[in-house]
From TrEMBL:
Organism of this sequence: Thauera phenylacetica B4P
Pfam assignment, any one: DUF748
The protein, known as: AsmA family protein
GO cellular component, one term: plasma membrane
Residues annotated as transmembrane: none
Domain of life the protein comes from: Bacteria
Record InterPro entries: AsmA-related (IPR052894), DUF748 (IPR008023)
PANTHER family: DUF748 DOMAIN-CONTAINING PROTEIN
GO biological process, one term: regulation of protein targeting to membrane
Amino acid sequence: DGRHNWTDVLGRLAALGGEAPAEDAPPTLFSIGNIRISDGLVRVDDRVRGITHELSELGVGVPFVSNLPVRVDVFVQPSLSAKLNGDALLLNARTKPFAESQETILDVSLKAFDLTPWVAYLPIEPRFRLPSALLTTNVELSFSQPADGAPVLSLRGPLQVDKLVLQDRDGAPVASADEVELEFADVQPMIGRWHFTRLRLARPEIDLVRLKDGGLNVLGLMPPPAAEGAKKAKGKAAKASADKAAAALAQQPVEPAVVAAQAGEGATAPAA
């Protein structure tokens, strides 16, 4: 059903919270320091997708976190290190969670991180296969919410994918490269700004095929346009409604008068 085995536990904990505080009630002030987790282990058995994930050698550190007025504009610096499915993962952050700006800077460090298991979690139905792709990156992701403007999300730093192999849904080769390297200079996806200072491809190969319908195989990797998807969904819904109406009509009893009328169709009245 898409839920996990902790769903009922979280529901019970939420029920213990009691009444919600009034909207105008002042927040409860707190200050907590020296939060540490060492050598933790988390296993996730995703039975919906048939994938098992393991977060091992988990280390979490939070020197302090506080919403006291004198601490609101001081950066909280949490960190997380682990091996996710055997691949090294390191996250270091600087954040002001209780400031108006919610300013946050996150450093993401990955080395030869296997991307192939994560295709199953794309928000779209993938029309391709990714049998090989290893991600190495040291990207800085920053976020802020100005009081008088839209939120700002930006990325900076290098990103590299090694041993990239891309196939279509039938497993036919489409593209490959030993290395694909990008350098983000000022990427702000929320406003459509894409500024790169470096793009490098090592031994790229593209298998371009013209299909019988005149299209190209690489175009089949892209998700269908929203209008086309909506049209197909509408067509399926209309067909389902028609089938349902026909089934309901077939189950209705036939009145005797109607039967008699149908039986008399085509008969010739006797001459006077």
